[in-house]
Amino acid sequence: MSEQSLRWAGNDAWVITWRNLTVWRRVPAYLVFTVVQPTIFTLLFRYVFGGAIPVAVPGGYVNYLLPGVIGQTAAFATMATAISLAIEAQKGVIDRLRVMPIARSAVLLGRLLADGFRMLVTLLVIVAVGYAVGFRFHNGVGGALGMIALAEAFGLALCCVSMFIGLALRQEEAVQAFGLIWLFPLTFVSSAFVPLASMPGWLQAFAVNQPVTHVINALRWMALGDTPLSHNGDNLWLSIVWIVGIIAVFLPLAVRAYRRVS
Amino acid sequence: MSEAAIVVEGLTKTFAGRGRDARPVEALRGIDLSVRRGTVLGVLGPNGAGKTTAVRILTTLLQPTAGRATVEGHDVVRDAAAVRSVIGLAGQSTAIVDELSGRENLEMVGRLHHLGKPGAAARAGELLEQFDLVDAGERMAKTYSGGLLRRLDLAASLVAHPAVLFLDEPTTGLDPRSRLAMWDVIRNLVAGGTTLLLTTQYLDEADELADEIVVIDRGQVIAAGTSEELKGRIGGDVVEFVVPDGSRIAAAVDAVEPLGESRPTVESDSGLVSVRVGARGSEALVETVRRLDAAGISSVGLALRRPSLDDVFLALTGHAADDTSDSEGVSP
Ligand SMILES: Nc1ncnc2c1ncn2[C@@H]1O[C@H](COP(=O)(O)OP(=O)(O)O)[C@@H](O)[C@H]1O
Ligand SMILES: [Mg+2]
To answer: What whole-number distance in Å separates Cα of residue A205 and Cα of residue A149?
Structure first.
């Protein structure tokens, strides 16, 4: 690729990113999704279920909970990715963009960048809300930044899954229904809200080995350091392997689905 | 350099078919056409005829199953990028983002065409002016009426000064006034020398805007020529009236026969007399009144009928322009 075409590819991705972020800023419902919903989730789990769930981490349940909400939110934020792309494909917006001589990567890259930024805002809101209700990092600034970075990386990997789903299904309702089918079990049957030991054995077998559990354990480990419930860094390596694997599989699938939109 | 901006030879597209009992759909079955540079080709056909499929292939969005097409000399398959740099598309799909203002939409398109920020802003201003959108330009596109939205979308397709423009049913769904306004806009464009391929379901639209018309039905070209030639083949305008008094019908036919291009036809049950009057519609209408009057024949329901797409189809294929598409699975 020549330097010129690389510059243009950057320009195109940036213009699409700007467009997506502008839409996001101007639609109140999207802001509610990014800010209000995770706030409510945090408060809900903190005060409604928190008392009933005993956990052995310093600072109690709120410290256990927050990395879980972070991980779950990163996953759920990708629903919007799938839905936006499905609508754009359905309405023919993507067709019209493809008739312009723009870089082929622009639409997907612009989506990833904008949604990645949106996700970052959401994650920071959750940390802030968490701080207001008693959450504290116990592993230094590096751990805190590491937690946000890992959540962001995991969210972007799932964005690739969502981009594929949105472009393959191309129907808002279908995408919505399908999104719930895979996101709910993955995030709830994990270590996000309750220790795995409290689940029945057959459920544990799934929960222990699925990526959301690895990621959330790793988030917890970075936020809190070694604790009886987040006792080693293995989860971090496993998380990274999952993230790389998910991107390696689903980014090409999303690109292929994008080429087939017409 | 050839004179043709668009050349299409034997273009075929077969879709794999959707749904459970997926039968392949032959959307295009070997289309040939060409559009001379700086002229307007109207592609006329009913819903499901294959118009959009043809436009999508010509604009590089879809690969043909067989056949060949070039736009400004560039092959739409092998040279897709070159094709994209010389074309504009507007029509059934839209590039407009509801949450951006008209101006922002045009600026965005300009920046995607690598005009740079100032260049894109200047071009947006020009287009808002040209399309009479200056007032609406600062509002979010979601507040636009259907007619405004189509104008903005058309403006967006012109940002990069395309040499060849494709308009896929640009007035479908518009109210009559917006439709006329759209026709004006399109006529101005064409006066500026743009080559235009326009699809439509309306004969009057093709008649109004196109230098040449290609009629397609079920993926095939069934007629081609100028509007005049086409109308010649379908007999042009028709004057119709009903003679309630059955015994006077023959006299009425004799009275108006000189006006017609052929002998008037009579539906004896209803007393409906139809006279094909070619392109001299209104003139013939007045003359009919005069002649019936002079002969002392009273008539009702005197009307001038201009040929519709249905007439074209009836004349060319012997079947009506049936809706075959869109509602897959729901066969009448
Ligand atoms: N992606 C597709 N898959 C299957 N069939 C299609 C597809 N697109 C169009 N068709 C079918 O091809 C035929 C022509 O469609 P189209 O080109 O949209 O017609 P028009 O634009 O003239 O209304 C229709 O029968 C339509 O159902
Ligand atoms: Mg169509």
So the answer is: 28
Backbone dihedral region for residue B218 (phi beyond 0: left; psi -120 to 50: alpha; all else: beta): left
Q: How many residues does chain A have?
A: 262
Position B325 scores a pLDDT of 41
Q: Minimal CA–CA distance to B277: which of B296, B291, B267?
A: B291
pLDDT for residue B329 = 35
- Residue A127: name the closest of A139, A109, A145 by CA: A145
Chain B residues touching residue A259 (CB < 8 angstroms)? none
**Can you tell me the distance from the alpha carbon of A126 to that of A67, in angstroms, rounded to the nearest whole number?**
10
H helix runs in chain B, sequence order: 51-58, 80-84, 102-112, 116-130, 146-157, 176-191, 203-209, 227-234, 249-256, 281-294, 309-317
Interface test with A, best of B112, B143, B161 (most A CBs within 10 A): B112
Give the rounded distance of the alpha carbon of B230 from its chain centre: 14
Whole-number Å distance between alpha carbons of B162 and B127 = 13
Closest ligand 1 atom, CA of B45? 22
Angle, helices B176-191/B146-157, rounded to nearest 10 degrees = 20
What's the confidence (pLDDT) of residue A59? Answer: 85
CA gap B243, B272 in Å, rounded: 7
In 3D, which of B24, B108, B297, B216 has the Cα closest to residue A97? B108
B197 three-class SS = strand
DSSP state, residue A51: G
Of the candidates B36, B29, B66, the one whose C-alpha atom is nearest the C-alpha of residue B197 is B36
What is the set of domains in chain B, with CATH numbers? 4-231 (3.40.50.300), 236-306 (3.30.70.980)
Cβ(A228)–Cβ(A57) below 8 Å: yes
Pairing of strands B40-44, B87-90: unpaired
Q: Which residues pair with B221 in a beta bridge?
A: B216
Q: Which of B42-51, B168-177, B262-271 has the lowest mean pLDDT?
A: B262-271
Residues 6+ apart with CB under 8 A from B96: B105, B141, B149, B152, B153, B156
What pTM value is reported for the model? 0.85
Element (H, E) at B164: strand B164-168
Nearest by CB to residue A99, choosing from B61, B100, B140, is B61
Over the stretch A196-251, which tens digit does the pLDDT of each residue have?
A: 888 999 999 999 999 999 999 999 999 998 876 655 678 999 999 999 999 999 99
Interchain pair A8, B59: CB under 8 A: no
* The token pair that represents A128 in the structure block: 């802030």
